[in-house]
Amino acid sequence: MWDTALRIFAGLASIGLAIGLGYYVRRIYPSWSAFGWGALCFVLSQVFHIPFNSLVLNNVFDMPSLVESRGFGSLVVSLALGLSAGIFEETARWIFYRYKFSGVKSYELALMFGAGHGGCEAIISGFLAVAALIGMSYLRAHPEVINDMPQDQQQVVEKELADYWATPTLTVLMTPVERVFAIAFHLCASVLVWQGFVQNNQLRFWALAVAAHTALDSVAVFLLLTSGAYSVETCLLLTAFPMSLYVLWYYRPRQQSANEEGDSLILAYAQVRTT
């Protein structure tokens, strides 16, 4: 019972984190529309990203064989997956800024857009975690379902079931913690791509966002394949998380008078409402 409750908490915490962040950012950017567009941006990026990985990368690189080979093979897989994630997600961000928020140069909008992008991923991850719990709980309570499967499939399902319930408590709790790191990066990447429009250097900042995304995902995948989940979270805590916070701090709006700040927010909000 305790194990089940812990898994429910981990899934719901990921969902609550995304919603809570949206409410927090709304204090400085008074519109949920950018959050919704950010969420749509993530979904559409995955509509192209996931099939590309499945149909192209798996065939070009023979991913299963490379993963089994460890060492150099794991490095190739990590770089390929990281680069594809960076290109698809950051390009999607650029497209939305270019065609939906053209002319709106608001730091607060970039934050809300990033909150929607990363928040959508967190919400989906949370729901998938809860759905997995329901499925695994059902299989554990009804072993006859597994017994009715073909023999080779039974072995696979039984192993997955055993591995699922053998997952350490700390690993389960790392799920929402990882979402914190991921959302922080999505805020960072959204601000980077947005800076390209502010500074009229879109290619440079898009490339920076792609490079950062590639590095983050590549290191995470490589450590997961070679060292385990604890190494991934430790690395994210010591590198990606503080880097993301630094970018958010560095590109924050400089001090301006209260009237100027209020006027800029009202203007940005009005521009979004009319697009």
From TrEMBL:
Top-level taxon of origin: Eukaryota
Signal peptide stretch: none
Transmembrane helix found in the keyword field: yes
Alphabetically ordered keywords of this record: Membrane, Transmembrane, Transmembrane helix
InterPro entries in UniProt: YhfC
Membrane-spanning residues: 6-25, 32-52, 72-88, 109-139, 180-198, 205-225, 231-251
Record-given protein name: YhfC family intramembrane metalloprotease
Organism: Amphora coffeiformis
